[in-house]
Amino acid sequence: MNTTSGFFRLAAASACLFVLQAHAQFDPAKVRLQPPPVEARFPPPAVIYDTPAFDAPQVGFTSYEQMMARLQALQTRPNVRLETVGTSEQGRALPLVLLAHGARFDAAKPTLMLVAQQHGNEPAPGEAVLVLLERWSAPERAQLLRQVNVVALPRANPDGAALFKRANAHDVDLNRDHLLLRTPEARALATTAARFRPQVVLDMHEFTAGDRWVTRYGAWSKHDVLLQAATTGNLDSGVYQAGMDDFLPAIRQAVAAAGLSESWYHTTTADPKAPVAMGGVQPDTWRNIGGLRNAVSILHETRGVGIGKQNLARRVHAHVVAAEALVQRVAARGPSLVDLARRADRDVSARACQGDIVVAAQQTPERRELSLVDAQTGVDRAELVDWRSSLTLKVAQTRPRPCGYWLAPTELRAVQTLRALGVQVKPLASQHTVAVERYVFENIEASQRQDGRGAIQDAGGIVKAKVSLQATRQRLPAGGWYVSLAQPLSGLVTAALEPDSQSSYVAARLIAVPQPGESDRLVRVMQRL
To answer: What is the DSSP string of 285-316?
Structure first.
């Protein structure tokens, strides 16, 4: 036997064993195979992709180590900067890649932020971001990076990806943690968004292909791509309309031109009585928090959860096509897009002390025809379903917008969380006697947060509060904290501090409900300080 040949065979065998071990959490035996008539509806694209997930010997998807090696290799290119923006629960570095001319961020140019794989069992977005980073940093795309900045987090939940599960290592759904910031992964995303202030955010996911659809309807999901913009209360109307009228149509046009199908994002459960719902309207998901940061915030999902590597090239292709369309539209809008976001910042800041805020909103019930793919024949099948639309909010509660909020000196956890979001919180160096509205807690009960599919299984649930307001003049002592609404992120402030919002810091117990006889911990300030 040739010694050199034997060495390389041994090395290759060891490498294959490493790959198998690295992907031990992905179990191909648990994959639900699509029936041949359904599989035939989703042929592979003409484009060949070469991330490690497409290597024939590799059982699973691109490992964390393989991803990091690809990213580190890109650092030799002149327009690439690789950073670490945090550490996961299990100690994995959270990489951020900046693509910009000369690898220098320029705030005068529009910024596109890509966030992939918040859910660890949704691999196609992470594979697509590797493709996009290599493409956009190539010498022939240098002109693109003279027009835009790209900020990319290719694997926002590396622990979940390693375990091939939706949540992070502590079983928290990262995509419901963008206001509370309980996880290090969500805190890393928040600080990144506050630092770069992107004008456009693309949140990249995958949705369930079979499972609940097969159980309920004997059919598989039909569309390659599901889309939705930010849909929550208190959004800036100009930024919202830019997403709906400009950026979403650009993606739809590109998807159709690539021979792919698309629809509004929707989901359900296996319960036959459950509605089919669009993405939620609560201020907790990355999509909705992005909108409250005055960015055009778009959810893009591909048909992949539960089917393993089936249709992987097509799924990656759909993400690549959408992101290419989006970055071209960002480049075309150029400085006008920067101006749009700055105008939104000014308008949102100017609304302090004026008008009303939405405290609670729900989806609007409708009846809608849903198109699926029959599991036996592979042909289209229509089902009339109870649909919950997020395009029109059913506002459940409003109240006058205060000038700001006062927090007691004890509420340091809430202050730190707000600051991690990028919110300006000022300490009060002297006392102020001002008009305020106190919260009178009329009823408190244990509950669960809700999204489009039902209850979110948070550990410990939430405090569901019913409050009324008591107008008075009150002395605010020195040493407390003031959070003005005359700032661009005021939409995040009201979501966090109105106690009867299900995503609020009172609901999540970051701010305790005062016991009888205790001083206020939180009041609404009704005049400018």
So the answer is: SHHHHHHHTTSEEEEEEEEEETSTTTTHHHHH
Q: Mean pLDDT, the chain, as a whole number?
A: 93
Give the residue-averaged pLDDT of 50-54.
Answer: 97
Q: How far apart are CA 525 and CA 437, in angstroms?
A: 7
Over residues 488-496, mean pLDDT: 98
pLDDT at 374: 98
**Which amino acid, 423?**
V
Burial class (CB in 10 A: 0-12, 13-18, 19+), 492: buried
Helices (H), 302-447: 312-333, 335-350, 412-421
DSSP labels, 37-73: HHHTTSPPPSS---SGGGSTT-SSS--HHHHHHHHHH
Letter for the amino acid at 264?
A: W
Task: Identify the H or E element spanning 257.
Answer: helix 248-257
Does the pTM surpass 0.85? The reply is yes
Q: Which residue type does 502 have?
A: Q
What local confidence, expressed as pLDDT, does residue 268 receive? 95
Distance CA 521, CA 405 (A): 10
Provide the residue type at 468 as one letter: S
Alpha carbon of residue 516 to chain centroid: 39
Q: What residues does CATH 3.40.630.10 cover in the chain?
A: 3-266+275-347
Q: Which of 260, 319, 279 is nearest to 123 (CA)?
A: 319
Instruction: Return the ∠ at Cα 432 (arms to 426 and 436), rounded to 5°.
Output: 90
> What torsion do the CA atoms of 343, 348, 352, 354 make, to the nearest 10 degrees?
100
Two tokens, residue 65: 């180590």
Q: Distance (Å, rounded) from C-alpha 217 to C-alpha 334?
A: 46
3-266+275-347 folds as Aminopeptidase (3.40.630)
Closest Cα to residue 147, out of 112, 182, 192, 97? 112
